[in-house]
Amino acid sequence: MRADGSLKKKCEYIVLEIAKGGELFDYIANSGELKEDEARFYFRQLMLGLDFCHNKAGIAHRDLKPENLLLDETYDLKIADFGFAAPVEGRDGQGYLYTKLGTQNYMAPEIHLRQPYIGREVDLFASAIILFIMVAGHPPFTTAEQGDPFYKCIANNRSDIFWRTHAKNKPAGANFMSPELKDLINCML
């Protein structure tokens, strides 16, 4: 309240950077699958951004997807839409999160099962899906549930079947991803 008795208005502003390069989703949709070196470039930027979020800011994003990864005017990646972000240590400080939220196709299986989950791990799971999309041009599976045949292969340690099935529709066949990239994705999923 001011000295004259009138109320003082509190003004709050959010200033955002313009992402002139658009969404990573549109970039992939318009240009097609990325070569591994280009996907590596964006994936590295994503990992550096998540490292900052997790270890410096102390938050888990919980809704990573290509639509929430923006590109600036020099096509550097920016993580956006922190509407579902939460403290990595959990609201109670025990290290677990409980809310079922995010985009279904990018949710880790523990979220679908409504189990307590670790924010860092679900962000890495979604990042693996994004990496797969960057190189393959489509998601690895529909949802991370046992009813999804592609996810079931990963969950049951049958990644050989998963990769062989995905390779059938690719001109390069089994070589559509390097063994190192397949291994990284397997470890993250």
How is this structure best described in words?
By secondary structure, this protein is mainly alpha-helical. It has one domain: Transferase(Phosphotransferase) domain 1 (Transferase(Phosphotransferase), domain 1, Orthogonal Bundle), CATH 1.10.510.10. The chain is 41% helix and 6% strand. The chain is built from seven helices and five strands, in the order E-H-H-E-E-E-E-H-H-H-H-H. The strands form two sheets. It has a three-stranded antiparallel beta sheet with strand order 1-3-4. A two-stranded antiparallel ribbon has the order 2-5. Helix 5 runs antiparallel to helix 6. The longest helix has 22 residues. The protein is globular, with a radius of gyration of 19 Å. The mean pLDDT is 92.
Give the arrangement of secondary structure elements.
Elements: E1 22-23, H1 24-31, H2 36-57, E2 59-60, E3 69-71, E4 77-79, E5 86-87, H3 109-112, H4 119-136, H5 149-155, H6 159-167, H7 179-188
Antiparallel strand pairs: 1-3, 2-5, 3-4
Strand composition percent: 5-15%
CATH class: Mainly Alpha
Low-confidence stretches: none
Strands of the widest sheet, in order across it, are 1-3-4
Order of helices and strands, N to C? EHHEEEEHHHHH
